Amino acid sequence: MPGKLYVVATPIGNLGDITERAKNVLQEVDIIAAEDTRSTGKLLSLLGLHGRTVSNHKFNEREQAKALVSELLAGKNIALVSDAGTPCISDPGWALVSAAVREGIEVIGVCGPSAVATALSVSGFEIDSFSFYGFFPREQGEAAEFLERLARSDIRVFVIFESPMRIKKTLGMIAERLPNAELCLCNDLTKLHERIYRGSPESVLTELIANPAAEKGEYTLVMRLPPAKAKEEKSEQISPEALLFDSLIKRGGTLRDAVADAHARWGKAYSKNELKSAALRLKEFLDKLSNRPEE
To answer: Nearest-CA neighbor of 287 among 279, 295, 124?
Structure first.
C-alpha cells in the first residue's frame, strides 16, 4: 500500500507558530524532504525531534521527485518542507506533489505559517481578491512591464516578495511608476525585529532609507492600487494606431521606429507589446489602402 505525502508548513520566524499536528507528522514520517537539510535539521533539533532528511531544492527537485515517489509507492510516508512557511509557494515542492498526484498517492496539507497570508492579514486592506507574484523581476525592462501589467489589472491588491539588498531599488521603481499605490511592507514577519512600513511608495522608501538595518531580513510587500479607470475612459483615449500614424507623419522612419517613439512618449498609456500589435494592424490597413483601385 502506498505511503502518504504530507505538505507541512513550518515557522517563518517564530518557533511558537509550529502546530502540534506539524510536529507529530515530522516525528512520525519515514522521510523529510527538505529545501535545505541544514535549516530543517536545526528546526528539528529545536523542536526535540529526529528524522531522516533528504534534500529537495529547486536545482534537484525534478530528479528527486522520481526517487521520492518510488519511496512513497514502497509504502514510506514523506513530509515535504521548505526553509520557512508553506512549501510550493515560491519555494520548491511542486514537482514532488505533481508526481505524487499522477501516481494516485494521497497528498495531505498540514497548514500553518505563510508569509503571504500573514502580510495580507495585517495590511488593513479590504481583500476580496489578490494576486501573488513571488519575487519582483530583476531585469529593469521586465520590472517596468510587470508594473504596467499591475496598473491595468482588474485585481487591485498584490503580494510580492523582495530581497533586502534590492528592496530600495524596487520601491524607487514603484514610486516612479505607481505613485498612488498604498503599501504595507513587512520585514522579518513574526521574528524578534519584525517591522511594518505603511504609506505611499515615496514615504515608505524615505522611512526605509532612514533605517540603518533595512538591508536585513526578507520583505513581503502588499500593494493596493486605486480603482482602475472605467473602461469607457480608455475607449476615449487616442488609439495606439493613431499614435503610431502621428509618429510616422511627424518623424518619418519605419513602423519599428514609430513603435519605439510612441513607447517613449506614451508608454504609460500603452505597453510596447500593445504598440507592436497596433503596428501590425496599421500595416495591414495601409497595405489594403495602397492596393485599392483608383476610382
So the answer is: 279
Assess whether 128 and 76 both reside in one domain: no
Task: Specify the 3-state DSSP secondary structure of 55.
Answer: strand
> Please, which residues have CB within 8 angstroms of residue 284's CB and are 6 or more apart in sequence?
none
Q: What number is the average pLDDT over the span 173-183?
A: 96
Q: Are residues 150 and 220 in the same domain?
A: yes
Residue 279 has pLDDT above 90, yes or no: no
Maximum distance among all Cα pairs of the chain, rounded to whole angstroms:
91
Q: Look at 1-15, 50-64, 75-89, 225-239 and tell me which has the smallest mean pLDDT.
A: 225-239
Domain count, the chain: 3
Q: Which of 99, 93, 109 is nearest to 72 (CA)?
A: 99
Q: Are residues 29 and 45 in the same domain?
A: yes
Q: Are residues 138 and 182 in the same domain?
A: yes
Task: Tell me the β-bridge partners of 220.
Answer: 161, 186
Q: Which residue range(s) make up the domain with 30?
A: 5-113
d(C-alpha 280, C-alpha 170), whole Å: 33
Last residue of a domain, one of 224, 256, 279: 224
C-alpha dist (Å) from residue 29 to 40, 71, 90, 114, 252: 14, 12, 24, 22, 70
For residues 69 and 247, which has the higher predicted lDDT (pLDDT)? 69
Query: How far is Cα 282 from Cα 255, in angstroms, rounded to an integer?
Result: 9
